């Protein structure tokens, strides 16, 4: 049965989405892996979706893991990041974006909370649902617990060495118990980003982008404000949703926090310039 995931649902109506989670693997040598991408997804882009495919290929060719599922978890409105439209819209856009995927799900649990939830708590939630409630996955030698791992871009892992962004105990907790698949990102020096995380290097897997893709949500928002096309940068259904709900347009009515005033004047740069990533 398809999962019921709607941006306007409440926590009381919430059920953990399981329809795209594979329940069995055939190779007894492999460890089942579930990838969790935490982020704003304001809006989700094709690069966010590509991250899952890159990580699955990486895991298959370079590790003993076998991917059995993956989840997008949108941060809640309390995060108050620039350009964040309401969680309701971000959940809906993510749900539309993964409609064609057989293995990527959207879990609205984090975003349905009114308070901010640290990533360590979000990963604990997945561990609880997948390994305690469901009990892991079947293998020819009996049930195995899944490895739950964070899937993130290099800029996110870089913030782990920025003072005050992450609690030291959370970094240790996440990288010791879960680990992270990190996708290289233009503008982030991966060696520098990892230099302070050497204690957990065996739980950090770095994925090269073989086709460099520098899409960011910031650029999508900026294109919208300049009335430029965002088609073929985000899935078509997401383009339609953004247009139908007038998201990221000039007045920023649906935003929890606006990027207005952060961009350089049009013509000042050939690119897009409203954040360090943009
Ligand atoms: N072009 C990219 N290359 C590698 N990783 C990326 C890229 N775009 C997003 N990510 C990763 O996707 C995850 C979700 O990111 P987020 O929702 O903040 O997207 P973003 O495009 O960076 O957003 P914004 O532009 O609003 O800061 C993060 O781990 C981020 O590092
Ligand atoms: N202390 C923490 O747990 C912590 C700190 C910074 C970012 N994050 C997470 O990283 C993700 C991406 O954040 P940005 O959209 O700001 O890049 C979000 O899901 C956010 O919750 C968590």
Structure description:
Belongs to the eukaryotic NMN adenylyltransferase family. The chain has helices at residues 46-62, 87-97, 119-133, 154-159, 168-177, 190-194, 217-225, 236-244; strands spanning 31-39, 65-74, 104-106, 137-139, 142-144, 147-153, 180-183, 204-207. By secondary structure, the protein is α/β, with parallel strands linked by helices. It has one domain: Rossmann fold, CATH 3.40.50.620. The strands form 2 sheets. It has a 6-stranded parallel beta sheet, sandwiched between helices. A hairpin with a 2-residue loop joins strand 4 (137-139) and strand 5. Helix 2 packs antiparallel against helix 8. The protein is globular. It starts with 30 loop residues before the first strand and ends in a 34-residue tail after the last helix. 40% of the residues are buried. The protein binds adenosine-5'-triphosphate and beta-nicotinamide ribose monophosphate. Adenosine-5'-triphosphate binds at residues 37, 39-42, 47-48, 83, 152-153, 155-156, 183, 185, 213-218, 275, 277.
């Amino acid at each position: 049965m398809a999962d019921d995931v709607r941006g306007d649902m409440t926590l009381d109506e919430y059920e953990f989405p399981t329809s795209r989670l594979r329940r069995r693997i055939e190779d007894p040598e492999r460890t089942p892996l579930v990838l969790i991408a935490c982020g704003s997804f304001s809006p989700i882009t094709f690069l966010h979706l590509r991250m899952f495919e890159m990580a699955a290929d990486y895991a298959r060719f370079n590790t003993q893991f076998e991917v059995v599922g993956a989840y997008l978890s949108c941060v809640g409105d309390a995060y108050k990041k620039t350009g964040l439209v309401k969680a309701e819209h971000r959940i809906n856009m993510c749900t539309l974006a993964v409609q064609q995927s057989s293995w990527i799900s959207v879990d609205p649990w984090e975003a349905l909370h009114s308070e901010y939830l640290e990533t360590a708590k979000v990963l604990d939630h997945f561990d609880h649902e997948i390994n305690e409630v469901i009990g892991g996955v079947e293998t020819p030698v009996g049930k195995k617990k899944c490895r739950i791992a964070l899937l993130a871009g290099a800029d996110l892992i870089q913030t782990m060495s920025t003072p005050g962004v992450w609690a030291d105990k959370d970094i240790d907790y996440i990288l010791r118990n879960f680990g992270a698949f990190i996708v290289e990102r233009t503008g982030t020096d991966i060696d520098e980003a990892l230099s302070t995380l050497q204690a957990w290097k065996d739980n950090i897997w770095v994925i090269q982008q073989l086709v460099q893709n520098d899409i960011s949500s910031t650029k999508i928002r900026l294109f919208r404000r300049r009335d430029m096309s965002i088609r073929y940068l985000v899935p078509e259904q997401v383009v339609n949703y953004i247009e139908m709900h007038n998201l990221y347009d000039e007045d920023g009515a649906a935003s929890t926090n606006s990027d207005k005033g952060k961009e350089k004047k049009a013509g000042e740069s050939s690119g897009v310039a409203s954040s360090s990533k943009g």
